Amino acid sequence: MKRWPLFAVTFVAVLLVTVMALREDSEPSAELLPELAEQPDLFMQGSTITQFDADGSVRYRLMADQIRHFTRDDTTRLETPELTVHRPDEPPWTVRANHGYLRPRGLPGKAREEVVYLREEVVLEQRDDDKHRVKLTTEALYVYPERRFAETDRAVMIETDAGRTTAVGLAGNLVTGLLQLSSNDSQRVHTIVLPNQFKLAR
């Protein structure tokens, strides 16, 4: 078997290392320049995002004055968003806020789903054809449009034609309209009934 001289083996090794180093230097860096790192890869003004159900009906519609999408964390930031969650044969729920974001989220063992986080002067509202209204206000709210669900651990106030209710948190099924209110040791769910809601029997 032919044996290579030591200097030949050393030369080939040095040559390979040099070629690999040159290739790495020639490949573009995956990192963005500092001045571009905070720039969105998608920017829209006065736009609307519409999601449809399998039967073609509208599941939800999201509007915002400004929409910025960032690929690095797959987040869509929203300015003055308004989200309308539709329900079959029922009036829709509409929620608006000063700021928010749209982001896919997944829990261990569960499929990923979209979550819309809304903050600052959040108003969740529903009106029917008879102009009856349910209005909820809070400072932060998570909405899961695909399963039509909303929740918050911040203080909430709910106003209806019958009165006003306050609580320390809420979990709401936007399909059935069932709102589960939360309380704690220092603050309980409190309801004020407006006058003339009950008539005395004569």
Derived structural class: mainly beta
Q: In percent terms, what proportion of residues is strand?
A: over 45%
* Count of helical stretches: 1
Largest sheet: 6 strands, antiparallel, barrel
Estimate the mean pLDDT confidence.
80
CATH T-level topology = lipopolysaccharide transport protein A fold
Total E-strand runs: 14
Number of separate structural domains: 1
Determine Rg (CA atoms, Å): 28 Å
Helix content: 10-25%
Name the CATH superfamily classification. Lipopolysaccharide (LPS) transport protein A like domain
For the largest sheet, list the strands in their spatial order.
Answer: 2-3-6-7-5-4
Order of helices and strands: HEEEEEEEEEEEEEE
CATH class: Mainly Beta
Description:
By secondary structure, the protein is mainly beta. It has a single domain (42-193), classed as lipopolysaccharide transport protein A fold. Helices cover 10% and strands 51% of the residues. The protein contains one helix and 14 strands, in the order αββββββββββββββ. The protein has one helix at residues 6-26, and strands spanning 42-52, 58-70, 75-79, 82-87, 90-96, 99-105, 113-127, 133-144, 149-152, 156-159, 163-167, 169-173, 178-182, 190-193.
Quick synopsis:
The chain is mainly beta.
What is the strand and helix layout of this fold?
Layout: H1 6-26, E1 42-52, E2 58-70, E3 75-79, E4 82-87, E5 90-96, E6 99-105, E7 113-127, E8 133-144, E9 149-152, E10 156-159, E11 163-167, E12 169-173, E13 178-182, E14 190-193
